[in-house]
Design a protein that fits this description.
This protein has about 120 residues and is mostly beta strands. It has strands at about 20-30, 40, 45-50, 55-60, 65-70, 70-75, 85, 95-100, 110.
Amino acid sequence: MEELSTGCCGTGAELGFRGPEVFGFRRITILPGGSTGWHYHDGRLLAVVGEGTLTRYEASGGGPVRYAAGQALVEPSGPDTAHIGVNEGTEPLVLYVLYLGAPGDPPARPVPGPVVRER
């Protein structure tokens, strides 16, 4: 067996199932200066940072929150939780992600970025 990555999450995660769920596993590589694009998830997402640092911003104004290699995170679901993951470092960012969702749900739904108003 090959272990791809292990991480520790600082928050508790409740994984009760409401019905049939699809489990999707992905390895995502984001090059320096790249991002996931603004999006949200219909279901739940658990991720481990395998390499590099993930910088996460929320459309509601939260962030930045940084996750280094070996750290894990749980992302909430729903359109009111739109966010973006950015690689602000100089090395590739590698994420190992588990998507939990209803059959037919995409792993992510793209959304326009938040409007930033100059003061």
